[in-house]
Amino acid sequence: xxxIDEEIARLLLDLGIDxxxxxxxxxxxxxxxxLLVSYIVxxxxxxxxxxxxxxITAKTKATWDDYLFNDDMLHSFSRMIPPIIFYLLxxxxxxxxxxxxxxxxxxxxxxxxxxxxxxIRSFLKSIYEISSEHExxxxxxxxxxxxxxxxxAIAVGIILIISILIDQxxxxxxxxLGASAAVLMLIFxxxxxxxxxxxxxxxxxxxxxxxxxxxxxxGADGYVxxxxxxxxxVQNFDKTITTxxxxxxxxxxFQNWRGMWENGSRRIKRxxxxxxxxxxxxxxxxxxxxxxxxxxEAPEEGGEPMVNLQAYRMYLLAYLQKNPKVNHDxxxxxxxxxxxxxxxxxxxxxxxDTIEWLKYEAIQNDLFNHFIAVLPRFGLCIYQHPxxxxxxxxxxxxxxxx
Length: 402
Known about the structure:
SH3 type barrels, five-stranded antiparallel sheet, 16 helices
């Protein structure tokens, strides 16, 4: 710094300007000259150097330099030129006015800190765009981490500005803030919890933008739009937006459907409630009829008589195993559940070969339409509570008999 001062003083002395003997006219002229130099250097940087850098980055095969040296980043860097020039040249204009010079130099330093923070913001934005294009980092919730780094940079910048204004060392201010750490932690509680939760979500790969998540506690059922420092935005299927604190996703339970999307299959798990009064043994003729139609395999001779519910279950299992819209690489099962007052649940468990919602519902509907329609052929009935029309029909039948 002293070497630069000496060189500039020698240059001014060669021009006939002695910084010890400056009148106000010369000072004003030099201030205007400093402003002009700052303007010219900034314009040369923006209109000469920036296009040259852009041309160089455009010729490279890598894409990271296109984001790192984008217009926002380079323009943020150009904003640092004026305060640096002011800080170097103002001492020669106000050499005899130490108080004025001290105020102006403080203003230059504060200006430099502000534009440095803007540069850091642009740099973090570029890094985020680069990570969004990277295959391994694209689906990581890194936005919250970048926001926390920017928040820390802003906090350090504010401390430096305060230290400049009160002429104190930044370390002294930090020591004073240590005493009020509890208050700061209370103020920034959500941000701190959000940062810790964001690191856990990213490290454990629990959540990615684009995942379908369900969290009944917060009424969330849809796709993750954004994972930031303080909120996770979920667009529900009715197009409403639900915001969830990131730490809630770590402390509470939520359902992530990503595995279903990666597998390419969606589970079908639905029960038919059978009227238990219709469950009975099959006749020999019925068994032969089922075997001839290929609905079931022939039972062993001398074994227990076949029950119509057993034959129906075997039929459903064979139907699912032959259905081309069912994923045969996943589990296929038809089982009885615990009897209930509403009947005997016969659960169908399989996976559709698609994850598209409309196609999935169509496959599920087709399966159960068939299962319900074929049920009477096995002498079985679906249980349902009697309705008003049922009671009216029975009452009419009784009156007719009377």
